[in-house]
Every structure is written in structure tokens, then in C-alpha cells.
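Could you help me review a protein record that somebody else here produced? What it holds is a sequence and that sequence's fold in C-alpha cell form. I have pasted the whole thing underneath without changing anything:
=====
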Amino acid sequence: MFNNLIKNLEGYLHFDEDELAFLTADMEVRTVRKNEKISRVGDVANHVYYIDKGLIRFYHEIGGKEHTYKIFRENMWASDYAAFLTRSKSVMNIEALEDTVLIQLHYDQMQKGYERAKVFERFGRKMAESLFLTTVQRTLDIMVKSPETRYLELLEHDAEIIRRVPLKYIASMLGIEPESLSRIRKRTARLQTKA
């Protein structure tokens, strides 16, 4: 069950067998059905999630309208990390977009790892850096790139997401309305046909 997780961890750092055994011993496998909430706004963010299979969406609501912050897929780590670190209530809803298998790491287990060995501290730092960079990049993209550029970059770097996720969520993640995304898709499809 933990094969994909272990490969992912080894991509960050080298772990000894006993360190991997310690880390995975208290990790929980959680199966979530499509459209099921993993956590809601106001829940304390107790876990960091490794996505073994499926897709999850982070979103919040403003004035009754959902705004998708980010979509995560297999072999990615995800968390409302600021709330996780500060032991505070989440400002995001997390929902499965497909039947999903998560491997979740509890805050307390991560703290025990930090106390046990430096490798866990380095792993925690690398995870924090990765999630921080994702947040900064999204903010910069929304501020300085056109919606068409954001769409083309998503298409280039993660076309699978576009095939698997309803377009209304893709549009929301890009910060535009579905109608605008539809026009961008038509325009870029024509340009690709001419190329």
C-alpha cells in the first residue's frame, strides 16, 4: 500500500528502513468517495495528505460562490498547511473529485518524527517549502499573467488535470468564469490547428 508513498519520500530525501517504518507506522489510509468532503472550513487542520490515487480540490466560498484554490492529484502532498502548522481552523474546504485514496500524516506524528531524527525535520522543511512555493506561484500568476497564459501553462505542465476535472473548477482555479475559459479553449485550439 505504501509503495508509491515511499518512492515519493525517497524523491525528497534518503530515509533508512527504520525511519520509513517509523513514519508509515501511524499513517492512516483513508478512502474517500467522489464529491465527499475530506475536511471543511472551520475544521482543525490535523493532517497532511499524500494522494495515492485520485484528485482533490481545495476551495472556499465567498458570497455563496465557490472559488477553487488548487487541485491536487496522485503523487502530490496537500494540506491547508498554514492551519496545520498553527493548529488552527482551516479556511478551505477539501473535496474529492474522484474516488480517492489518501495516506494521511497527523500533526502529532510529524512532531514525533522531528524529535526522532534530523531527516524528518529536513523532510518537513522541504514539504513546507514546496507548499509555500505553490502558494506564491499561484498568487504571482494571478497578478501578472493573463488567463490565457495561465491556461496554456496548465495545459503544458499538467494536461491530465484538464482532462479529468470539470471545466468549471479549472476556470475557477484560473480565476476566470467558465465562459471565458470556453473562449480561451476555442481560440487556443484554432491556433494549435494552424500550427
Notes: The CA atoms of residues 95 and 193 lie 36 Å apart. The longest helix spans residues 118-144. The mean pLDDT is 91.
